[in-house]
């Protein structure tokens, strides 16, 4: 096996394990779009390991369904493949489905509740997370994540996810992120450990929004976060604090460790930018190492250092 094939195999093993244990629909869709030749493998290995129903729909027909959706609705994969979706949707909800279909044509992710009909003609209340997978070859391709609302555990997990994580990027939202940061702070203070806060602000997001539209701006942010996530350690985490401002928390890390992490980040950014044709990822950042100051003081220091870098870039 040559190095490129080995790298490809290792990549898919890593991403499969990550998505099977912590499914993220946006990362899953990105995988489908990035690796069209591997779609069958991705769908079978990952989608069939997920408890929630997963469907791919094209021109109002099912072209893929996972095991969980079949178990939910009672039909086999052969019965569902190429079946019109309207056969399993309660007619009272047709208008809602059409409305959200129009949103997907505009590449907008949406969530809505409807009732579907199982093989025994019984209604099942479900929550649909609909994400467009529009490409030039498949302008009408749509991914759906189906949550059975009869299952309280699924509902609680979903509510927890949306109260904990930022919907766009998948990182911690402000409230939950700062709750965890507070714990890191108390732990580090008690056991005299180092940790570093890194204030990050993407460059040129406004220009990208103005030139290509906000949908591309959203993709830019997601690509940026994916690169950061792939570069940091499992113990590190990211908080979204504003539109394009993020706080990276490096646990048990002094400035030397932080520098090594950011070298990895820069290396991965360079790799991304070599293949990206629409935009280049870049950002400004500033550090603050914990030395018994407050979290507020650390954020102010990191923010000031970030703006120094941003100012230097303007004058280059």
Descriptive overview:
- With 316 residues, the chain is of the alpha+beta class.
- It folds into 2 domains: 51-160, PAS domain (Beta-Lactamase, 2-Layer Sandwich); 174-314, Alpha-Beta Plaits (2-Layer Sandwich).
- Helices cover 50% and strands 19% of the residues.
- The protein has 12 helices and 9 strands.
- It has helices at residues 3-21, 25-34, 39-46, 67-73, 77-80, 94-105, 152-164, 174-191, 205-212, 214-231, 255-275, 295-314; strands at 53-58, 61-65, 110-117, 123-132, 141-148, 196-202, 237-240, 245-250, 283-289.
- The strands form 2 sheets. A 5-stranded antiparallel sheet has the order 2-1-5-4-3. A 4-stranded antiparallel sheet has the order 7-8-6-9, sandwiched between helices.
- Helix 9 crosses helix 10 (214-231) and helix 10 packs across helix 11 (255-275).
- The model is unreliable at 1-12 and 14-21 (pLDDT under 50).
């Amino acid at each position: 096996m040559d190095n490129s094939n080995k790298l490809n195999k290792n990549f898919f093993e890593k991403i499969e394990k990550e998505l099977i244990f912590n499914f993220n629909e946006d990362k899953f869709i990105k995988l489908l779009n990035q690796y069209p030749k591997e779609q069958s493998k991705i769908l079978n290995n990952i989608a069939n390991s997920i408890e929630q129903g997963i469907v791919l729909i094209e021109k109002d027909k099912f072209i893929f369904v996972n095991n969980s959706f079949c178990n939910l609705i009672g039909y086999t994969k052969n019965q569902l493949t190429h079946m019109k979706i309207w056969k399993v949707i309660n007619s009272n909800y047709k208008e809602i489905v059409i409305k959200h279909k129009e949103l997907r044509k505009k590449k907008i992710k949406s969530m809505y509740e409807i009732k579907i009909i199982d093989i025994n003609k019984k209604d099942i209340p479900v929550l649909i997370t609909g994400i467009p997978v529009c490409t030039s070859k498949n302008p009408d391709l749509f991914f759906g994540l189906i949550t059975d609302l009869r299952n309280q555990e699924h509902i609680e997990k979903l509510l927890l996810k949306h109260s904990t994580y930022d919907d766009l990027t998948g990182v911690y939202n402000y409230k939950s992120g700062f709750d965890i940061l507070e714990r890191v702070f108390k732990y580090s203070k008690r056991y005299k450990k180092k940790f570093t806060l890194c204030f990050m602000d993407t460059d040129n997001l406004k220009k990208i929004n103005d030139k290509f539209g906000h949908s591309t701006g959203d993709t830019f942010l997601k690509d940026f976060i994916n690169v950061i996530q792939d570069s940091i350690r499992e113990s590190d985490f990211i908080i979204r604090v504003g539109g394009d401002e993020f706080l990276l928390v490096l646990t048990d890390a002094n400035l030397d460790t932080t520098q090594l992490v950011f070298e990895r980040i820069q290396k991965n950014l360079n790799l991304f930018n070599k293949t990206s044709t629409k935009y280049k990822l870049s950002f400004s950042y500033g550090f603050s190492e914990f030395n018994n100051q407050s979290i507020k003081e650390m954020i102010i220091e990191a923010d000031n250092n970030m703006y120094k870098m941003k100012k230097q870039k303007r004058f280059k």
